[in-house]
Specification:
There is one protein chain. By secondary structure, the chain is mainly α. Helix content is 84%, strand content 0%. α3 packs across α15. The radius of gyration is 19 Å and the shape is globular.
């Protein structure tokens, strides 16, 4: 289809949605040590908070397809993004840890709604363009994470208070969302009809279930980087917080850079081959992080994990959006719901294992998840 000013606007709106989501998520990841210190929590309690966010995410993801079918992706993206921003503002203001747990559940649910809405929009843009686009959109998510983590580290260096940092992040992302959601495309008529027909939640079966399992394994690894990389450098390598924040930044930067060339890789490589190579690299890089005592080598390792994981989600979400007889919103919602169980269970289990042993031992199991993902790629994606 001819590219016009309107096309450019909708593409940039989608990019900024992904960027804002990455920035919001980074603000939470960078401030996990701040939450730990503010509320006097141990690593086990932090694992409980991550579990709350994961449970909220699954709830949001399972309802996102139905909500998009009845209210449109624009409204779902707006309210998901707005609630996420409000949750950040309140992150360090909860009078009791139980309320903090509830707040993280709301944050997870809101991010889940935003996630499915923006991916459904991206899949429609990819369908209209007739070529791979999903990796570049997810590159904007990683870029948002990189910028959010980098700004967080800079703000710590400048001694800006954490509450002011979170307020600034929320206002900035809300402004991006306010413009972007107005440019989003409506659902295609066939997709809208399929979305309404599927009801509130579609249990993933067959190929969707296998793709979801691959997503769960990948999200265990990715969630470990988001939730534990900063704390790993602080507690296991004695790095100061402003230096530890670079763990998240290096991971996100490498993931973003790789995703911006990922659509070319997807056009040339088979999904199976690309996923196997990606999983192998992620496993090798995380092994480097765990075996090295050097902060610099650990940062390099986190960056290589980002390279390895860069194309996993774009490949899986594109596959979910193209399953015959299933609307893109419901396909992505079903696969993401299964996949995000990795975000829910993986990082939380890491926290509980770390409480009983060490974070290094807990992260060693994550290497096995990456290897298993590579081993199952052929069965899930061979068609």
């Amino acid at each position: 289809m001819p590219f016009s000013i309107s096309n450019a606007r909708t593409h940039w709106a989608a990019r900024l949605l992904f960027f804002a989501a990455g920035f919001l998520f980074a603000a939470w990841g960078v401030h996990i040590p701040t939450v730990k210190e503010t509320y006097g929590l141990g690593v086990g309690a932090i694992g409980g908070l991550v579990l709350a966010a994961g449970l909220g995410s699954v709830l949001g993801l399972t309802q996102a397809g139905w909500l998009i079918a009845h209210h449109g992706a624009r409204r779902v993206a707006w309210w998901g993004g707005l609630l996420s921003a409000v949750a950040l503002v309140l992150l360090l203001r909860m009078p009791h840890p139980v309320l903090l747990w509830a707040l993280l559940a709301v944050f997870g649910a809101a991010m889940g709604l935003l996630d499915v809405a923006m991916n459904a929009d991206a899949s429609e843009l990819e369908r209209q363009a007739g070529r791979p686009l999903m990796s570049a959109f997810h590159g904007m998510f990683s870029l948002g994470g990189m910028v959010g983590a980098g700004v967080g580290g800079l703000m710590f260096t400048l001694q800006v208070t954490p509450n002011l940092q979170l307020m600034g992040a929320a206002v900035f992302c809300t402004a991006l969302l306010a413009w972007s959601v107005r440019q989003m495309l409506p659902l295609a008529p066939q997709a809208a009809a399929e979305a309404v027909a599927h009801g509130r939640f579609m249990l993933p079966r067959g190929r969707l279930a296998l793709v979801g399992l691959l997503g769960a394994l990948g999200f265990v690894v990715e969630g470990a980087m988001y939730d534990w990389s900063v704390l790993f450098l602080q507690t296991e390598r004695a790095a100061p917080q402003e230096q530890a924040a670079l763990a998240y930044a290096s991971f996100s930067a490498a993931m973003a850079a790789t995703r911006f060339v990922g659509d070319r890789l997807r056009a040339r490589w088979s999904s199976v081959g690309l996923l196997r190579a990606s999983a192998g690299l992620a496993a090798a890089a995380l092994t480097l992080v765990l075996l090295s005592d050097s902060v610099v080598l650990a940062l390099i390792g986190f960056a290589l994990v980002g390279v390895g994981l860069a194309n996993v989600v774009p490949v899986l979400f594109s596959a979910a959006a193209q399953v015959p007889g299933v609307s893109p919103a419901h396909g992505i919602s079903a696969v993401a719901a299964v996949g995000y169980c990795g975000f829910m269970a993986g990082p939380s289990i890491i926290g509980f294992v770390a409480h009983g042993s060490s974070l290094t031992v807990a992260l060693a199991a994550v290497v096995g998840c990456a290897l298993l993902q590579g081993a199952l790629a052929l069965r899930a994606l061979r068609d």
